[in-house]
Amino acid sequence: MADLVNEFNDYRSRMNERILADNNKIIKRIFNLDTNAYAEGALDVKTKELLGLVASAVLRCDDCIKYHLQTAYNEGLSKEEVSEALGIATLVGGTIVIPHLRRAYEFWEALENQE
User: Fold this and answer.
1) What confidence tens digit (pLDDT) does each residue in 91-107 have?
2) N or C: which terminal CB in the chain sees fewer CB atoms within 10 Å?
3) Could you tell me the domains of the chain?
């Protein structure tokens, strides 16, 4: 199960390095904007991660879901908090979100079992 987390992180890191190595100003600015959007502000980081998770699930982006799950896990969010947010995402997104919900639960389990 921990392989699921390691494979995701390795691939993401490797490809982000390649993308940023092209020195494309627009892409670098988008990456920077994304990083800064999730920084502490009027909303705390945990809330922003849950918002990102819900949006990612509704948009059906598995990589985005994994990223936000891992950050939520690292920020100390509980399984119950994440599950409640995913419930809202499924309600808003409809049954088409269910396959992504399955993979989200699988990834959360892998996060819990990596230690």
Assistant:
1) 999 999 999 999 999 99
2) C
3) 2-113 (1.20.1290.10)
